[in-house]
Amino acid sequence: MIRLKINDIPIEIEEGKTVLEAARAHNIRIPTLCNQADLAPYGGCRLCMVEIEGYQRPVTSCTLPCHDGMVVKTDSPQLKDLRRFTLELILSEHPYSCLICDKKEDCAKFMLCIQKEPVTLGCKYCSKDGKCELQVLVEELEIKEIPYPLTYRGLEVERWDPFFERDYNLCILCNRCVRACNEIRHAGVIQFQYRGPDTVVGTAFGLTHLETACQFCGACVDACPTGAMSERYGKWGGVPDKKVSTSCSFCSIACEVLLNVRDNAVISSEPEHHPLCVRGRFGISQFVHNPKRVTEPFLKKGTRIVEVEWDEALQAAVEKLREFKGRTGIIFSPNLTVEALDALIELENSGFGILGTSLDSLSAYADFSLEQFSKPAPIVVLNTDIIDDFSVLMLQIRKSWKEKTPLIVIDSAQTKTADKADVWLQPKLGKEEDLLQLLFSESDKRNTTGVANELIETVKAMFNGNGAYLFYNPSNIAHVKLPGSVKAIPLFARPNLSKIMNMQVQNSNDILHDDSIDCLFLVGESPSLKKTYKVIIAQDHFIPACGYDIFLPAATFAEVDGSFIALDGKRRTLNKAIEPVGKSKPDDWIIKEITNNLGVEAGTTTRAKEPTQKATPKQVKPTGKYPFHLVVRENNYRFRNKSLSSLMKGFKKFRNDDCLWIHPADAENLKLKDGKKVQIISKDFSLTMTAKVTDSVPAGTVYAFHDPSAGLVMDKIVRLECIES
Amino acid sequence: MNEAFVLDEELKNRLTALTNDYSTKLAALLPALNIIQDKFGFIPPEAEQQIAELLDIFPTQVREVTTFYSLFYNAPVGHHKIYVCYNLSCCIEGGGKLLHYLAKKLRVSVNETTRDGKFSLYRTPCTGACEKAPVIIVNGAYHYNVTPEYIDELLTKLG
Ligand code: SF4
Ligand code: SF4
Ligand code: SF4
Ligand code: SF4
Ligand code: FES
Ligand code: FES
């Protein structure tokens, strides 16, 4: 423990803390700009200057470690002058007219300025107005005028990337965005470029963020104290009335997220305790208030679709369920709350229908906790693009590790993660399990994986007896015997696994192939249909691709209280941030209403439930008629019945999942061009997609993302036909 | 990638060997860039990319350094690089005039390269040799008490 005095207050603090940290721990305010608690000290803005007894001149408190007997002053008049001077200099290159305007208090109320001051720049024209750290400091340091002429840099505003835009004319070079990108995300996308008055934040070679390894996590945007970086959607959302802590439901990791709410609308979301990914940071507000969202009940009457009141919609649903009693399939999405799942079990128990969900990739799930990863070890990633899909998990696991361990990717396709990996092993399709066997056990099996023996030996040497962590995509791997030193975690994209396994529901595919079923009740899911149904009841945020007769608008996860089970097997809470939009209602409410109105009939027995067995998909070899192997990848950018890229432009640019990845040689043979439509035909389905020609997939194999509404559920052999050239 | 700027094995080995002299790989960046500039006359973006891979750092980190130092060139420059000191002492002794004389003679402006790619003209702040003002630096070598006549001679010598 170290004892020091700050402004005559005796303070005790553990060794290694800076003077700024000591002051903050005791609520002593020191103005700062470049400091951010979760980033390394930088000492760039010079605002945090303090006086130390015995020191000749003031020093920056953010970089100065405390030592015993220190006597610190943080608030002398000289310091205030010094800080004011520093801030004036910083602001000489920042549009400052509004900051020092004597009418600024009344500006918003009376719009005085438009008539009186010739300004087109400044706080009133900045999305950061009211949330800006510069504004706070100008108030605090009582800056009334700035003795320097304004230098406007005249840089082009960078509006060409999805999710956020950058106006470096407002940048004060605090370096927070750069450090956030490097230290929090290890992404290294931005750095300062040039020097002196030319210094500007930028990417390598002037590439757009989309062309770099940017993950669009928004850590840089959140770090920026000014309006230089701003979110595209909702940047004019204003100052939030409240912040609500809840759990992001877009993927199974279920991060804690803060929703910024104003006038019963989610204007943006931000990380709470640990970083978010692009979906949680930029997707939530756009999802909740998506223009495609439907928030009123609709009913098909004859050939017309009419908006109705809840009573009528529920009544219609109940009547149909009665009519098709025992002939109804209830297909639900795993993206529901536990409460909604419980309500579904009730509904099934009332004997009106059978429950099913897409179980194709459900195999053994594993609970885990982050503590189990405390020991650094090499990370092996099998058939999953962990950097795109589970970046947050990787960051959390590696956060506590001092040393960098190798990242080994096993994948037949060259994913983003494969690009970043220390070693990329490209086994032949279907040989993944053999490769694991060769890597992890002393097997004397002949190596037919297509991966060179030397490479396997190199990787084995990396394990070095320390074991490894294996993250694998559960959908195309059954079971591999692994030694105890290897901790294996299947990465399921969807939550609630343990719950769903216990529900012992049917596989939705069996229901869809069951001819006796005439009515479908789709709760958050939109499967590809094999036959026509007499009635389809859809309960969701968006109209399902398969159409509907009764539509029941469900409230999104930002609008409900509840819980769901995350990838690690633990429960996460959902806290209602806003009232349900429009007439939408929580899923569990809708299902309970239906169940109550149906009335449980005495003595009804539910259909005998056998636990669904997962059939190991047989590897089918491409034939003359179906020469391509279609690999279906788990899609972590899908929520309920929609892929995020079909709802939001940014995701379409960043990660378009409506495309078929095909090797240039194959494309050439088919005379297929990048971005053109291609028809995929297999024994039992046909589908049109957009081709993405890339040499990151092997020839003879095409890749697509899991999409039940298009029938993309498991690997198949297919034929391709070019329908646009 | 432009084939001309692919680093050959020998160069790569030299760069890798450099890293042994420093406690971190990042620290080898400056000498590595010097080697590259010696070889190509400037630092091609392709080389930056390859250095980033060799040193296991992000390409932006290389960019940060190459854009920071004005003595690293991001595009091809003249064969001979002429720097004219433009600070007080030299200007009192006619440094400014020298700069204009050179500019006129080479028919370029400051920071430009002659069409034939032979000369690039720059100005530099004080080079620390005020007592022998005016000073110019040509390809790293100092020339003191420079006069227009001296420049004529020098340019003919350099061809
Ligand atoms: S960044 Fe801050 S100070 Fe600058 S214009 Fe925007 S709100 Fe005003
Ligand atoms: S969005 Fe994330 S990865 Fe991209 S530049 Fe910002 S911090 Fe870096
Ligand atoms: S963009 Fe924002 S965070 Fe980055 S250096 Fe400029 S002011 Fe700081
Ligand atoms: S990692 Fe998953 S839970 Fe976390 S923010 Fe992204 S989508 Fe949401
Ligand atoms: S906070 Fe200390 S120098 Fe910026
Ligand atoms: S001013 Fe030219 S060398 Fe000092």
From TrEMBL, chain A:
The keyword Metal-binding applies. Gene3D superfamilies: 2.40.40.20, 3.10.20.740, 3.30.200.210, 3.30.70.20, 3.40.50.740, Dimethylsulfoxide Reductase, domain 2 (3.40.228.10). One of its GO terms (cellular component) is membrane. Residues 78-142 form the 4Fe-4S His(Cys)3-ligated-type domain. Pfam families: Fer2_4, Fer4_7, Molybdop_Fe4S4, Molybdopterin, Molydop_binding, NADH-G_4Fe-4S_3. Transmembrane segments: none annotated. Residues 1-78 form the 2Fe-2S ferredoxin-type domain. GO terms for biological process: respiratory electron transport chain. It comes from the Bacteria. This is NADH dehydrogenase (Quinone) subunit G.
UniProtKB/TrEMBL annotation, chain B:
Keywords: 2Fe-2S, Iron, Iron-sulfur, Metal-binding. [2Fe-2S] cluster binds at C85, C90, C126, C130. SUPFAM superfamilies: Thioredoxin-like (SSF52833). Signal peptide: none annotated. InterPro entries: NuoE-like, NuoE_dom, NuoE_N, Thioredoxin-like_sf. Binds 1 [2Fe-2S] cluster. One of its GO terms (molecular function) is metal ion binding. The keyword Ligase does not apply. CDD domains: TRX_Fd_NuoE (cd03064). The keyword Iron applies. It holds the Pfam family 2Fe-2S_thioredx. Its cofactor is [2Fe-2S] cluster. PANTHER family: NADH DEHYDROGENASE [UBIQUINONE] FLAVOPROTEIN 2, MITOCHONDRIAL, NADH DEHYDROGENASE UBIQUINONE FLAVOPROTEIN 2, MITOCHONDRIAL. Belongs to the complex I 24 kDa subunit family. This is NADH dehydrogenase.
